[in-house]
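REQUEST ID: PR-0412
SUBMITTED BY: lab tech R.K.
PRIORITY: routine
TASK: structure prediction, single protein chain
INPUT:
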Amino acid sequence: MTELPDPETSSRRSFLTRSASLAALGGLTASTVERSVAAEPASGVIDAHAHLNHRSRDSWEADDRALIDAADRLGIDRLCCSILTPKRPSTADGFRECNRWMLDAMKRFPGRVLGYCYVNPGCGAEAVDEVRRCVGDLGFIGVKLYNEYFCTDPIVFPVIEAAIEFGVPILQHAGHAHHPLPGQPRISDGGRIAELAARYPEAKLICAHICGGGDWEWTIKALRHSPSVFLDTSGSVPDDAVIEMAVRVIGADRLLFACDSSMTTSVGRMRGADLSTEDRAKIMGANMAKILAGKKR
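STATUS: complete
OUTPUT:
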């Protein structure tokens, strides 16, 4: 089982780091700090989509540490992370290696880093076995799928069914562009995720990075009739009013705060959004905490 942080310690750390971070920015009033702290959910702030580094990168250890330090400065209590292979499609040996490193990171940063199990569904039984090993035996909190296949390809279904069995979320890489993406011929979009949700309404599907590029308005509308699909708020695109539209169309109960390594933009997007205190708390951590609590075993 994943070790969770003590709520009192977590809250105190968040208060201190958030206040220090805001003070360092300068020009912010005391009321700004009070409003930000008041919005923090009891669960703490959870980044639902983060990544640690593949160890073929010379600076992987320092870069992992830098991510945690940035989370400290921004008042993020927990990060839901995966490690991907640099070249895809991944082999079974490739994703198993990534998941071993992910488990090591969960031990190096206990209670801060929660692990998604990354697999390539094209590896068939080896992918399903890896989900069972990581989620069932090692305390991983969900499954990460990238772009090896469309999420609606039948070869993906056994992985979805394994995640359903454990009651854990599937974070699906996604985007909707109006031009070809030669490097990602099988990228899924909100429409395909909605189609998958209709086939498996019991699955906890997360459509990744609404601000990661592409047509975010199209994506939000594509998901409006799929109540079991969540949408993560991450990405480097600084467009205005994305969060407000998402709340209006699909509701705050289905939005998950996330950064996907674009930390300042993603945190700024949430701080600038015009939201009620209740909706902000849901998005910043309460919704993801509820998903994590739904793990069956």
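NOTES: The longest helix spans residues 7-25.
REVIEWED BY: pending
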